[in-house]
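To whoever is on call:

I kicked off a structure prediction for a single chain this morning and the downstream step that reads the tokens threw a length-mismatch warning. I double-checked the sequence; it's 352 residues and nothing unusual in it as far as I can see. Pasting both halves so you can look.
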Amino acid sequence: MALWAWLGPVIALLAVMFVYAAFQMWYKMSTGVCTSKRRLDGCTVLVTGANTGIGLETAKEMARRGARVLLACRSPQRGQAALEEVRRVATKDATVALLALDLESLESVRACAAHVLATEPRLDVLINNAGAAFLSNAKTADGLHTGLQVNHFGPFLFTLLLVDLLKKSAPSRIIFVSSVAHEYAKLKPEQLEYDVAKKIGDTQIYAMTKLANVLISNEFARRLSGTGVTVNSLHPGAVKTEVYRNLPVAMATVVDFGAGLFMKTPTDGAQTTIHLAVSEEVEGVTGSYFSDCKEKRMAKAAYDVNLARAIWEKSEQLMGLQANKYPSVGEEIKSPPQPLQEDIPEGVSVDP
């Protein structure tokens, strides 16, 4: 009995260590890594939410490859700290600049885009990385749901405003950082309205915004077909970042502990974004969804072109935009890019 008194806990501990080691081995083998060595000298890359997590790691890698990197951040203080960190790893050919961008304010979105258009002669890659979970369901000054505005409306408007510069700089790339959470969402255009959205739980709102990201990405890809601008979305993986910073303290502590054990680091989580930004393998690829640096199947709803168009038009309406105000992305689609045939869910039409 005395032997088992101490041997039992030891065996249990060894079992836990074995399971954790096996998980780590599987994790290392399954996590995608960008293998492209392509330089970005002469290219301009804009990363939103670049002051922390995946955005910061992405910006650092762009600077290592010689790009001009624009860091679009909400907090001036944290943005300045990120600017200094990115400059420390930048090659001598790279330049780094800081932009003020608060996605909770459409005025800020317009001002940031106007600054870019006035000061940057080109834009080769736009990375819509900024986002958050468990945001307040309060109404913004623009009359929109806070969570929907930060994760969907803001990035959508920002991209609309920069499309002409991206076209001018073609071949260029637009990237939307979404999430596997989009697979668990249901989204109707009327749910974008504040009075409807405020009654929906935080977790579902987050999933809805991630589905909206994929739908809008696909719709941009269709509308920009033939322009030299490619548009794709991605799931970065379960990453230990500040995306959950708005959780209650107790829950955040638990999530942070679990994240340290089982989630990707921001460097690992940035790999698919980096892959889509630089890899020669994805030249000309558009309207697709990636995870671990590979093209993956989207949720069934993401293939619904009618839903994508409806979300686009409802978003324009709620932001007070004139339909088809942006000729670069408002024309009828003649030959939209098709998803991989094997990835089209049975019974889902891909025709506009």
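Update from on-call: the warning came from a stale cache, not from the record. Cleared it. Sanity check on the structure: Strands lie at 44-48, 68-73, 95-100, 125-128, 172-177, 229-235, 288-291, 294-295.
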